[in-house]
Design goal:
With about 325 residues, the protein is an alpha+beta fold. It has nine helices and 18 strands. Strand 1 and strand 2 form a beta hairpin. It binds adenosine-5'-triphosphate. Adenosine-5'-triphosphate binds next to strand 2 and helix 1.
């Protein structure tokens, strides 16, 4: 299958800054693809390379099998939803949404109808006459989405589109974006530094660090089987385990990872397990996070709230299923 977007050894250097460095990735048609990574890791630059706002300093980009080299942004069949929405404050909602069609020379009646359809898609019918300043943050976000969708792009690029919304609205919009994407079948490329958002929304996730792709996989693969210490650490609050610890339980002298929810805490009764002490507990609602000290090794555990925990300082024994201990292949 021809990828929607293909990066072949793509680099974008700004002088000495290697914003994107020899990145290979294929984004499948119709896929919800997340680019996840810390600030400055190169995600936005990758998005801008797909959009055509940046040109690679090395490598090759294809969009649906065609070379993107020399193709200007407006001829790429790709639209971007920016983090700050970039709406025109002096235009009403309908004219904001219809703007791209006007630039393409579509007639007034037709672009009005298309804009109204797009507003229906994002559940804002009847808001056409308002100015952006008369909308809530969430509504502005929907207008920005409608403005991109009205052009019927084959690929929609979203740069932290939910970053400005409060938690509840963010969660609602995550659900809505996901179902909209499935209903329309458009390829979504979504940039975020929020691992929860990437894991819950994406079909596949690329984890970025320092201009490099560290791992590409389904949310489950990335979460359960991180390829490196960086990925284990960044995606969720995994425990990164040193080789001597891993060797005791797996026989392999390699770095490993263990998810906080895989650890069980028991009062010390002399049974098998890792001897530790509780350093602190934090109540998080449904779960409680427990920080543990296992002979100098700091471990995080997540247990259901209400579990019977001894007080901080008391000796405890930690157990886990061996299959939950993930051994990192590349990290000796
Ligand atoms: P964030 O989550 O903060 O948006 P990001 O992962 O999207 O970060 P990029 O915006 O792609 O990161 O930036 C990657 C690196 O490239 C950063 O070090 C940034 O300072 C640098 N960079 C980006 N654009 C330019 C530019 N036009 N000139 C010089 N350096 C740049």
């Amino acid at each position: 299958m021809t990828p929607a977007v293909s990066f072949q050894k793509v680099s974008r250097h700004f002088g000495a800054v290697r914003a994107v460095d020899a990145v290979d990735l294929d984004i499948r048609p119709g896929e919800f693809f997340a680019m996840l990574g810390p600030s400055g890791s190169g995600k936005t630059t990758c998005l801008r390379l797909i959009a055509g706002f940046e040109q690679p300093t090395g490598g090759h980009i294809e969009i649906f099998g065609e070379s993107a080299g020399g193709v200007p942004p407006y001829r790429r069949n790709v639209n971007t939803v920016f983090q700050d929405y970039a709406l025109f404050p002096h235009l009403n909602v309908i004219d904001n949404v219809a703007y791209g069609l006007m630039v393409k020379g579509v007639g007034k009646a037709e672009r009005r109808q298309s804009a109204e359809e797009a507003l229906k898609l994002v559940q804002l019918p009847g808001y056409g006459a308002r100015r952006p300043g008369q909308l809530s943050g969430g509504q502005r976000q929907r207008v920005a989405l409608a403005r991109a969708l009205v052009n019927k792009p084959k690929v929609l690029l979203l740069d932290e589109p939910l970053g400005a919304l409060d938690l509840k609205l963010r969660e609602n919009m995550q659900e809505e974006l996901k179902s909209l994407q499935k209903a329309l079948g458009i390829t979504f490329v979504f940039v975020t530094h929020d691992q929860g958002e990437a894991l819950s929304m994406a079909d596949r996730v690329a984890v970025f660090n320092d201009g490099h792709v560290m791992q590409i996989g389904t949310p489950e693969e990335i979460y359960q089987r991180p390829a490196s210490r960086f990925v284990a650490d960044f995606v969720g609050s995994s425990n990164v385990l040193p080789p001597d610890f891993v060797q005791r339980y797996s026989g392999q002298r390699r770095w490993g990872s263990l998810r906080p929810e895989a650890i069980r805490i028991q009062r010390a009764t002399g049974g098998d397990g890792v001897s530790a002490r509780i350093v602190s507990t934090s109540y998080l609602g449904a779960t409680t996070r427990v920080v543990l000290d296992a002979g100098g090794l700091r471990l995080n555990a997540t247990v259901p709230s209400g579990a019977d925990l001894p007080p901080a300082g008391e000796p405890v024994v930690l157990t886990f299923n061996r299959e939950h201990l993930h051994v990192m292949e590349g990290e000796a």
